[in-house]
């Protein structure tokens, strides 16, 4: 039998994005239910952002200490892989979501455990672990916050093998002797460096190069660091087939070459998780899901929303949480009759935040922090753009470490004299990124930005050097 319930808002997916949209509508006076088939808190909490960064941080601290005379001499041991893995596990609460479940209850949000599927207009059917079902009817909105899923390339032999995705890599109980990483994107490169520093022999096979969405000067610093640390990195190299021999993965990479490793991590991108959630039942194509700036799916009659990775705009947790807050506000405003039917009636800044001022960090060592558009992206968008770039060589970087190596770039809209993109590469540059984000989102005029004086001696003094080189 199926139990029937009615509620204001149904949110499918209880990751960080789903939690935020549910919390937002409840704060605005509506009722909400979260539906989750896995751990409450989602991918970021248990298999992505938090555990991957926890794997990277200890080795980054160790290298930083070794880069400063006086501290270097105090470092007498090596990285303790067991302790690193234990600390990683502490950040996932040993993959126990009871604390997240408690937060959901304390926020006044209902929680249903099970697999959700759209079954009609404003209707969701939930199948529980015991086979029973519950049907919910939403008064105002159904929100898809189902995230993304790994994209697995059609490589001969791969489908039959027990390879790792990022889930297995971030939750591993021990460090393999050797690891092959298929893919040169953010997740693959971060985990490659993490495991190499934990003692694995790591080989990266990147068909399209390393970190191709970032300026080559920035990604080049990371590539140089990986190779200097002993990682084998094959760029512009395609894997033609994969097999197992004597318990080891063997990857054929062309021209008679092969890579052998104990474990294989496939990290070749992700795509929106839209299959199996019933979109066909309401006449929508799962492969062509679109949304407006409020998160609303325009072809679903005004009640269906998509936020975070499933929305297909930006696959970043912080950006998804921003979208969730905006969408929660829009749902509540429409329910209360204070928001029109059109996205343009909403906020003039959502497009800026979602498309033209997205901050992102690669947590390798060195890091890359970027917000907005590259020079090529800006010009493709029709912007009369210029770039100014230089090495990061200021008093603050010299104090940071004796071997500090970094690079910085600003992309300027020459017609409006505002920044449309900023990139930093180097140790700890992520801590400078929010200032760049404010400058891009706020469209701070360059002649005004000139008067934002960076403190001496900090790495942020690179802002002054960039403006000086630009000609301010």
From TrEMBL:
It comes from the Bacteria. The keyword Membrane does not apply. InterPro entries: Class-I_Pyr_Nuc-Dis_Oxidored, FAD/NAD-bd_sf, FAD/NAD-binding_dom, FAD/NAD-linked_Rdtase_dimer_sf, Pyr_nuc-diS_OxRdtase, Pyr_nucl-diS_OxRdtase_dimer. Binds 1 FAD per subunit. Residues 358-463 form the Pyridine nucleotide-disulphide oxidoreductase dimerisation domain. The keyword rRNA processing does not apply. GO terms for biological process: 2-oxoglutarate metabolic process. Keywords: FAD, Flavoprotein, NAD, Nucleotide-binding. FAD binds at residues 53, 146-148, 309. Its cofactor is FAD. GO terms for molecular function: dihydrolipoyl dehydrogenase (NADH) activity; flavin adenine dinucleotide binding. Residues 8-320 form the FAD/NAD(P)-binding domain. Disulfide bonds join 44-49. NAD(+) binds at residues 183-190, 269. Belongs to the class-I pyridine nucleotide-disulfide oxidoreductase family. This is Pyridine nucleotide-disulfide oxidoreductase. It comes from Arthrobacter agilis.
């Amino acid at each position: 039998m199926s139990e029937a319930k009615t509620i204001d808002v149904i949110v499918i997916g209880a990751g960080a994005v789903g939690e935020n949209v549910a919390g937002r509508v409840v704060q605005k006076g509506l009722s909400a239910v979260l539906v989750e088939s896995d751990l409450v808190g989602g991918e970021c909490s248990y298999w992505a952002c938090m555990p991957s960064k926890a794997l990277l941080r200890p080795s980054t601290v160790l290298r930083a200490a070794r880069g400063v005379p006086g501290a270097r001499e105090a470092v007498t041991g090596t990285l303790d892989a067991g302790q690193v893995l234990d600390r990683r596990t502490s950040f996932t609460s040993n993959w126990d979501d009871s604390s997240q479940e408690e937060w959901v209850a304390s926020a006044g949000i209902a929680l249903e455990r099970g697999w959700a599927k759209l079954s009609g207009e404003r209707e969701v059917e939930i199948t529980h672990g015991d086979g029973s079902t519950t049907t919910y009817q939403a008064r105002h909105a159904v929100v898809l916050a189902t995230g993304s899923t790994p994209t697995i390339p059609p490589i001969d032999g791969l489908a039959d093998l027990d390879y790792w995705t990022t889930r297995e890599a971030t939750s591993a109980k021990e460090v393999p002797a050797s690891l092959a990483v298929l893919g040169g994107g953010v997740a693959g490169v971060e985990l490659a460096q993490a495991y190499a520093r934990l003692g694995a022999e790591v080989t990266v096979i990147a068909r399209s190069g390393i970190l191709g969405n970032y300026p080559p000067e920035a990604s080049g610093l990371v590539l140089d660091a990986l190779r200097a640390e002993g990682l084998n990195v094959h760029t512009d190299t395609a894997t033609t087939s994969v097999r197992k021999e004597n318990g080891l993965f063997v990857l054929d990479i062309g021209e008679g070459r092969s890579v052998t490793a104990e474990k294989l991590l496939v990290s070749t991108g992700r795509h929106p998780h839209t299959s199996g959630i019933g979109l066909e039942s309401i006449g929508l194509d799962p492969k062509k899901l679109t949304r407006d700036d409020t998160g609303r799916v325009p072809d679903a009659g005004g009640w269906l929303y998509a936020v975070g990775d499933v929305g297909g705009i930006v696959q970043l947790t912080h950006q998804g949480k921003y979208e969730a807050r905006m969408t929660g506000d829009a749902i509540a405003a429409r329910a209360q009759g204070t928001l029109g039917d059109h996205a343009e009636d909403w906020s003039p800044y959502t497009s800026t935040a979602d498309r033209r001022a997205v901050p992102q960090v690669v947590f390798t060592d060195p890091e890359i922090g970027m917000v907005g558009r590259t020079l090529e992206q800006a010009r493709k968008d029709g912007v009369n753009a210029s770039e100014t770039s230089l090495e990061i060589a200021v008093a603050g970087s010299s104090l940071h470490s004796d071997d500090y190596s970094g690079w910085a770039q600003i992309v300027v809209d020459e017609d409006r004299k505002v920044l449309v993109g900023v990139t930093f590469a180097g140790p700890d540059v992520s801590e400078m990124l929010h200032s760049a984000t404010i400058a891009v989102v706020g469209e701070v005029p360059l002649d005004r930005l000139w008067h934002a004086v960076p403190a001496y001696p900090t790495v942020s003094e690179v802002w002054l050097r960039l403006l000086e080189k630009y000609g301010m």
